[in-house]
Amino acid sequence: MSNFNSDIISPENLVYKKPSTLTDTPLHYCPGCGHGTVHKLLMEVIEEMGIQNDTIGVAPVGCSVFAYHYMDVDMQEAAHGRACAVATGIKRCFPERYVFTYQGDGDLAAIGTAETIHAANRGENILTIFINNGIYGMTSGQMAPTTLEGMVTTTSPHGRNVKEQGYPLKISDLIAPLPGVAYVTRQSVHKPANVRKLKKAIKQGLEYQKKGLGYCMIEVVSNCPSNLKISALEANKFVENEMLPFYPLGDIKVPEVK
Amino acid sequence: MTEEAIFAGFGGQGVLSMGMMLAYAGMIENKEVCWMPSYGPEMRGGTANCTIIVSDKPVSSPIVSTYDSVVALNQPSLEKFESKVKPGGVIIIEKSTVPVLPTRTDITTYVVNGNEEALKLKNLKVLNMIILGAFLAARKTVSPENLVKALYKALPERHHKLIPLNEEAIRIGMNFIK
Amino acid sequence: MGEIKLMKGNEALAEAMIREGCDAYFGYPITPQSEVLEYLSIDAHKRTGMVVLQSESEVSAINMVYGAAAAGKRVMTTSSSPGMSLMQEGISYIASAELPCVLANVMRGGPGLGTIQPSQGDYFQSVKGGGHGDYHMIVLAPSSVQEMVNYVGLGFELAEKYRTPVMLLADGAIGQMMEKVELPDQKPRKTVFPDWATTGKIAGKPRRYITSLNIKPEEMEKINHILQNKYAEITKNEVRYVTKNIEDAEYIFTGFGLGARICTKAMEIAREKGYKVGMIRPQTVWPFPTEIYNKTSKNLKGILCVEMNAGQMVEDVKLSVNGQCPVEFYGRTGGMLPSPDEIIEKFEECFIKGGK
Predict the structure, then answer these.
(1) How many domains does chain A have?
(2) How far apart are CA C246 and CA C318, in angstroms?
(3) How many residue pairs from chains A and C have C-beta atoms closer than 8 A?
(4) With contact defined as beta carbons under 8 Å apart, do C5 and C55 qualify?
(5) Pairing label, strands C138-140, C284-286
(6) What is the domain count for chain B?
(7) Is A211 within the bounds of a domain?
(8) Does A22 touch chain C if contact means CB atoms closer than 8 Å?
(9) Which of C134, C133, C135, C106 is nearest to C121 (CA)?
(10) When comparing pLDDT for A220 and C355, which is higher?
């Protein structure tokens, strides 16, 4: 079934369409937010791999809490921070299914740290997409565990004071050394070239899962124009100039080739 | 017939397992049984006791206020449970670890020299079976034959070679009761 | 007749889980119920293929239960009081998302870290809520090792019938004591899953999603109505209790779980002393057997409620009796157990010597 209007665009003129694995529900994300791009990439990969009926996803609490309205696969909505535990419950009972969690920095790296680290350490064969935008989006702009030093948020209005409020947490680097972890990479969606690289990484993560190599995490350094109170373009510049120097892109751990 | 008993002593003396064996034996005789442990946080060395009820009818409560019989393998146990024996009931004590005897005159006290006998058998762990032998001779709750059957049923196969020694211990214990 | 064994309550619970075709167990060690996970770890997976996993916390365990239950599997967890407090968040989500599962709380004395000895201090937590929001679990109160076994099968049956969490509210004594049990025959594990379960999308059919989130209040109120209607249905159909000697009774002793066992002994002693005492024991503490208390109390001189807490179920007894006869309470707390003699003493003090 085609989900574009062929009266307006004839098939031979079609250069882009959303994947069939995304529902027709309009995304609720703010203009310029990275979530929409990551949703699309994940669903494109699932469509291309032909695994829509073999995939079960777990949505978090945070801006992407409604991910299950957009992703046309069987999904569960987890309690705040518990996605990796929920995913463990699913994957252990259905080891042949692809299971992913989609979580933000508050969900994964604050309230859900224990669930994340232990799922990683058990080598659960799941893929975690970890959106790191350095701020709490849904509750409107509070400090996240990944908020940069000196960064202004509603709960660090004078800039994050690391002596009082702790340091930004590099969760990907933290879990990468664990033996149960197969693949950790940090990507972004602020430029088209990065978008393409992220798509490759997602495909890689799911293929590793198929091989049963262990826990895979893809951190996506993203933005939050609404809560940073800047334009979408400026938000992407913020990613480039402020976030990436502290959260450098690239593979942190890849499985050894045998 | 209902026997409401409590076996008490130090952790490691085997009071919990001797209660368990009595329960197994009761089950072999198609009786209703209930075994309930009471224990501290220590794995060994603390005080431990178990209530054991063997009856012809369903066991109402595993918690009872008074007992038909008390086995006390250390002094604190005797002090704690002497007053809980029903008039006409029985106390069985281990001589080496209970130096001060019960004072009540409305009950029967049996003193068993179990540790010394266990030493002669070169295995201190059979103390509990010597005591249980004495208990059976005094109370006749189950037959000694069924207790031995219970050992075969309850112990893992790799321990079965020790059962003859335990049988001997049970017999020695029974001889303490006249 | 099934296999007869002498078993500890906790081990019998675990054995029943295997035999009732449980697909997965997730749990975290805590005294006095650690034997459940230990027992399952021996060979449950080998016997039926069921998943047995030690989680990093009770929080994680209950969310693993959520994941497996939402995927249509027959799943259980067990814990004891402090661990059950940690699970309350997850239970609220499970109730709201209408997921069937069975939980067991082998209660110990609290509050706080408390003690490792038996208690019934989590009655309120279990029957009145515990987590946030308006929800109920079906709460079964086993009073023997046999009922520990029976309620696993019954628990799964009710959980699946009503798509609701079911709790076995036991205590450390029932978990640790050994009694004779008849075990059910081995049942096969499920191969067919309900339509709502997220087992992976079925081609040509809409995707399934499990959530407890309905951001529009109108929608969330509808969910609440669905839940409340279900609870009304459960209250109508699933009340379970046993009575003894109530026909000629002037007084009733009542309690649940182990408390009720002790009451039975006290009742026997009271009868020997010539008092006409009967017993009511709820087997479901939610839904509570309101009617039998209400009906019986019309002809009574008094009810004595005995619990291993500071007085929790007695509130439901009083609501049920609705002033038709005096209701008194006796309880021990912190891991101490009421003895039959203490119950008799309290009974005589309240109803005989006091001349009420």
Answers:
(1) 1
(2) 18
(3) 126
(4) no
(5) antiparallel
(6) 1
(7) yes
(8) no
(9) C106
(10) A220
Interface contact flag, B34 C264, Cβ < 8 Å? no
- Interface partners of chain C (CB pairs < 8 Å, 3 or more) are A, B
Nearest to C176 among B37, B41, B60 (CB): B37
Does the residue A104 lie in any domain?
yes
Model ipTM? 0.92
For chain C, say whether A201 makes contact (Cβ under 8 Å): no
Give the residue numbers in B contacting C (CB under 8 Å), as ranges.
20, 23-24, 27, 32-38, 41, 59-66, 154
Q: Give chain C positions within 8 Å (CB) of A56.
A: 71, 198-200
Question: Are A218 and A199 in contact, with CB atoms under 8 Å apart?
Answer: no
Q: How far apart are CA C219 and CA C198, in angstroms?
A: 22
The three-state secondary structure class of B50 is strand
Range list of H helices, C71-122: 81-96
**Residue A249 belongs to a domain with what CATH number?**
3.40.50.970
Mean pLDDT for the stretch of residues A26-47: 96
Residue C27's φ and ψ, nearest 5 degrees, are: -160, 170
C196 burial (CB, 10 Å; 0-12 / 13-18 / 19+) is middle
Domain region containing B56: 2-175
CB-CB under 8 Å, B33 with C177: no
C58-70 and A113-121 are packed helices; what angle lies between their axes, rounded to 10 degrees?
70
Report the run of H or E that residue A37 belongs to, with start and end: helix A35-49
Using a threshold of 3 CB pairs under 8 A, tell whether chains C and B touch.
yes
Rounded distance between C-alpha atoms, residue A217 and residue A172, angstroms? 7
Q: What tokens were used for C26?
A: 């997730």
Chain A residues with CB inside 8 Å of C67's CB? 58, 76, 78, 85-90, 93
Flag whether residue C75 sits within 8 Å of chain A, measured between CB atoms: yes
Q: What is the CATH number of the domain that holds B29?
A: 3.40.920.10
The DSSP 8-state label assigned to residue C140 in this structure reads E
pLDDT of res. A200:
98
The predicted pLDDT at position B44 comes to 61
Query: Chains A vs C: touching, with 3+ CB pairs under 8 Å?
Result: yes
Q: Is B80 exposed, middle or buried (0-12, 13-18, 19+ CB in 10 A)?
A: middle
Is residue B156 very low, low, confident or very high in pLDDT (cuts 50, 70, 90)? very high
For residue B145, how many C-alpha atoms fall within 13 Å in the half-sphere facing its CB?
A: 1
Domain ranges, residue A143: 27-253
How confident is the model over B100-142, as pLDDT tens digits? 999 999 999 999 999 999 999 999 999 999 999 999 999 999 9
Q: Is residue C1 very low, low, confident or very high in pLDDT (cuts 50, 70, 90)? A: confident
Quote the CA–CA distance of A234 and A214 in Å, as a whole number.
Answer: 37
Using an 8 Å CB-CB cutoff, list residues of chain C that contact chain B: 4, 6, 31, 116-117, 173, 176-180, 258, 261-266, 268, 337-342
Kindly state whether A159 is in contact with chain C, defined as any CB-CB distance less than 8 angstroms. Answer: no
For chain A, say whether C203 makes contact (Cβ under 8 Å): yes
Please indicate if any CB of chain C lies within 8 Å of the CB of A10.
Answer: no
User: Considering the domain boundaries, does residue A3 fall inside one?
Assistant: no
Confidence band, pLDDT 50/70/90 cuts, at residue A2: very low
Query: Considering the domain boundaries, does residue A17 fall inside one?
Result: no
Q: Which domains does chain C have, with CATH numbers?
A: 4-237 (3.40.50.970), 241-353 (3.40.50.920)
Query: A117: nearest CA in chain C?
Result: C56
Out of A73, A86, A88, name the one closest to residue C201 (CB).
A73
